[in-house]
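Minutes, project huddle
Topic: does the predicted pose make sense with zinc ion bound?
PN asked that the exact inputs be recorded in the minutes so nobody has to dig through chat later. Recorded below.
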Amino acid sequence: MRGHVLFKVLISALLTGLLMLSAAVSADTAVESVGWPDVSFDQAVPTLESVLGYAPGERITSIDQAHTYLRALASALPERTRMVEYARSWEGRPLVYFLVGTEETMARVDDIKAGMQALADPAELSDERVESLIDELPAVVWLAYGVHGNEISSTDAGLQTAYHMLAARGAPFDTIRENTLVAIDPSQNPDGRERFLNHFRETYGIAPSTSAIAAERREPWPAGRTNHYLFDLNRDWLPLTQPEVIGRVATFQEFFPLVHVDIHEMGTDSSYFFPPPAQPFNPHYVDAQEEMLDAYGRNNAKWFDRFGFEYFTQAVYDAYYPGYGDSWPAFHGSVGMTFEMASARGLAGERRNGEIVTYADGVQRHLITSVGTIETASSNREAFLSNFVEYRRSADAGEHGGPREYLIPLAGDASAVHKLASNLVRHGIEIRRTTEAGSACDRDMPEGSYLVSSRQPAGRMVRTFLEQESPMAEDFLAEQERRRALGLRAELYDILGWSLPSLYNVEVQACDRVSIDAEVFDGSGVPAYAEPAASQVGWLVPWGTQAAGRFLAAAQRAELNVQGADEVMTISGRRYERGTLVVRIADNPQRDADELHMMVSHLAEMSGAEVVATDTSYSEEGVSFGSSSVMSLPAPRIALAWDDPTTSYSAGNTRFVLERQYGYPVEPVRVEHLPADELDRFDVVILPDGGNYASALGERGVDRLKEWVGRGGVLVAMSGGMRFVAQDDVGLLPTDLERLADGKPEGDHEGDVVDGTQLEDQDAYQSAILPEAPRPDSIPGVLLRTKTTTDTWLSAGVSDGVAFMVEGRDVYRPLTLDEGWNALYFEAPDNIEAGGHLWAENKAQWAFKPAVVQASYGDGIVIGFVADPTFRAALDGANVVFLNAVLRGPGHTARLR
Ligand SMILES: [Zn+2]
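Predicted holo structure (tokens), as shared on screen:
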């Protein structure tokens, strides 16, 4: 098949090339293989070729072309289709879903939505009503393609699935059409797909370059996998920070599809993956869901066997983290799946064994599994609808066994509390807001606190989102310990910890008995903003909240002169903790008191921050405004290291946090350009996670960067960036990476011969094969809790308990008192875990080790974050210390501006 297909691709590519040069030439349908065999097609339905001028699989269809084709289908068959825009990408591209059904089905789409929403809350329905709904509703099947923009073939598979559902006559289409309503999302990440395609177009010649190192198949930084802010959208279903995913989650709750498929590509050398997934499963899956996954898998296998396609199941892709497109739907009682096809990463790619994988191969296989999925849902329609109802009924009845309620007291950072509550509402979780002050389970609950019952149809989602850990099966963990003892990698695909309270640093407490008046919260109407009073002296903004962070960023951007108190103040009887912002009328002579009052009021309203007017600057206890520990906080100009060797997620997510969560602009600067004289225009340089900065900068570049810090710059380095600044030959940060504690010491290997030993038993043998001087075992992504050192400005406003997502093995020794501050350090072993499972040795070694450090370098400051505070923009709890570093750091250098 290999040579034959390559020949066809070459011919088609040649024709494609000619077409690009001369639009008059019509392409031959060289790739005949895309399509369902043994069916006929209704000629009234426009083919891809009739609309776009090429056969399916022959070219990589762009977003605009995909929409053009879907619109053509919609205008040819308006009574059997509907195209709906559900979101816009950052770059302004529409995201759409395309509904396909029979005329009869499409005429009642609104009733179908209402019916599924009714079934989603079965306690409100009589048994007869449930039965009649199950009897009359179609199986809603959601097929979502291309969440990773460089996993390209799926978009064309989506278009072909739409075409086949409308045009194909014969089995299985005649039956499955009757029983289903199919939604096709042709591209979940249009910005990423267009990034890939631009690169492909720029590097393509007259025929596909198939080698693994061909320019057209190797993308430059950043690859098309991610969206505009370089997020992996298939990890955002939990934090919900990106518009593409926020739109999908809302749409899901209109339809409650029975199955949601997320359709991907993987490495060229692999084959095809469909569920059942690998272990571990999230413990809140129910047996019926595993059985349904098995049914979908068996049916896809039937077709793949018939057509002779290779596949694998039950490996690599697990079902543990609840924030994927294939897992999140499960916690609403649906089934989610991932399909993965070996990628051509272009029109054709060559495997190590010489086989060719074509784009058309990908389109064809994804078409088969798409149709196979619709078929499974169709033939099991009633049973799967019943399973959906039963999942939601049993959760509502508390059969998952969790605590009755979770309390979210309005305490600590109120803006984070409100954000957590609003996020849960977006997820489709019912929340109540208390309308009186009260207490429950010995916890004070001020008015405006939140209650989340686990006795609701999404109760299992409530548990996996709010509890610190969703335990993996014991036998799975035991197997991983066995593998680790053999030096094998643990079989874990992504992070192990995701508890939303830990991510946001918000207190959540389980409680079985609550009697406080509360009403259902719809996600709007908070935070309450209080207009600050007028003043003759100025205003104070207590620090340590997300809202105060937004206030500072906006004030700096508006060129307001703001100061920050590094010490505690007591003014007019109120104690203000370290970090409080001060806006003095006398410091802002360009505006009169009324104007400044208006401006401060506006900033308070848009940020949600508490702003307190004061008519005195006299502090009854602690420092007054004129003290040297009340520092001016000028607006910093921020450069963010960009491009190789930075990690695109880290660079993009960091930019997003500053720009979109706090409204403060950053300027991405390619690492190769950092050593330029222009660097002196910047006050702050952020080095996100990354690979080998030293080699990317070169010796001269490293020296230039050090000189810039020495002249008063603030260098903020995270994970890989911190590894770079801590290198001995760089010398910007005086700490060191640790080896494994109690690991085998380095032996003496002088000469070719070593002293003989007698290994007396199995234990002696096991210790003989241990590696020498090993690094600590890698952590797959676990939330670790920190403590705060109270006397540094870097920790001002940061409460104990802030969690960081720790991945990898970079544990550092603490800075000594003469070297700098360990502003945040990890908690004691018994309190370090804030989400996810940590190996025992990791727990013992990471305890009390630094999380955020600061050291002086010349007139400047170097700040190291052991783990990214901007991880997936989900770690709101870590934002305060990050903003201290970036927005307040320059106020603490000796730099002359
Ligand atoms: Zn993917």
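Observations noted during the meeting:
- Residues 122 and 811 are 50 Å apart (CA to CA).
- The two ends are 68 Å apart (CA to CA).
No decisions taken; revisit at the next huddle.
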